[in-house]
Specification:
alpha+beta, Jelly Rolls, Arc Repressor Mutant, subunit A, six-stranded antiparallel sheet, four-stranded antiparallel sheet, 10 helices
């Protein structure tokens, strides 16, 4: 039996790891204690999970929940091995997320497991994709907060309609967008954008997505790719120069994101303009 964890990203109060377990039916169930608040997305395999909140069979797409300091037990009676994407929150960081949700009062999970309900599928799929495509720290930071907020919402049955953004919220989002527009090459973190408009990171993330339709990181990335596409079609600047001018630190990252959004490499995209 063995557990191997590889840290993918971390920040103040949070950490994301890729965790692989090779335990099987012949291995005894093992007991551990959660060192922090935990949401683990199962991406392959199955295992039995038991904690003070309850018990359940964990399967791909489901989320294992753990409260800081709580003991738990895992077993592999039905098969060998599993792989999870583990999101760890300090109690203080998790409280920031929970307190930003209307109607959420408890700062602890009340269930051991959440199935892949429709409300969670978008953020679950994005988290899985971020691991496979080597997402950066900013992407995982957003995912940590979105996943934490989404799980809290499901557990508190707050899938009801959200409070509409206020005029002040819209003003904050507009200010953030103007800052992004004025310095498109600058690396702007979620914390910096939120601080600039006097909002908590989670509240800013939530209202930005409500107002704009995408998260701040997604907006910045797509805005940069849009600018890059215009440059590729309207100038003969080298691809490396276009990448740097539009805020990408290296060409490989630029190529990867460009291909995912446009379905073609920057070179192929430019070639279409020349052949038209």
């Amino acid at each position: 039996m063995g557990i191997r964890a590889r840290q993918l990203a971390s920040g103040a109060g949070w950490r994301v790891s890729d965790v692989v377990c090779t335990a099987g039916p012949s291995d005894p169930a093992f007991e551990e204690r959660h060192g922090s608040m935990c949401i683990a997305l199962v991406t392959s395999g199955t295992f039995e999970y038991r904690s003070v909140q309850g018990a359940g069979l964990m399967s791909p797409g489901s989320l294992m929940l753990g409260n800081s300091g709580a003991c738990f037990e895992c077993g592999h009676t039905h098969g060998t091995g599993d792989r999870c994407l583990s999101f760890q929150f300090s109690p203080e960081f998790f409280e920031q997320i929970a307190s930003g949700l209307p109607g959420t009062r408890k700062l602890a999970f009340t269930a051991a497991r959440v199935p892949p309900v429709p409300e969670l599928l978008p953020v679950i799929s994005e988290a899985h994709s971020a691991r496979e495509y080597h997402g950066d720290e900013d992407e995982f930071h957003e995912l940590v907060m979105r996943l934490g907020g989404a799980v809290c919402g499901v557990l508190s049955s707050s899938s009801r309609a959200r409070r509409a953004p206020t005029i002040r919220d819209e003003q904050r989002v507009a200010r953030a967008i103007r800052r992004i527009e004025s310095r498109p090459w600058e690396r702007l973190t979620l914390g910096e954008l939120a601080s600039d408009v006097a909002a908590s990171p989670y509240h800013f993330l939530r209202v930005f997505e409500q107002v704009v339709g995408v998260t701040p990181r997604q907006y910045i990335l797509r805005d940069r790719l849009r600018r890059a596409a215009v440059k590729l079609r309207s100038s003969d600047a080298g691809i490396a120069d276009v990448a740097l001018e539009t805020g990408f630190g290296d060409v490989s990252t630029f190529n990867r994101h460009f291909r995912r959004l446009f379905g073609a490499s920057p070179g192929a995209f430019r070639a279409c303009r020349k052949s038209a």
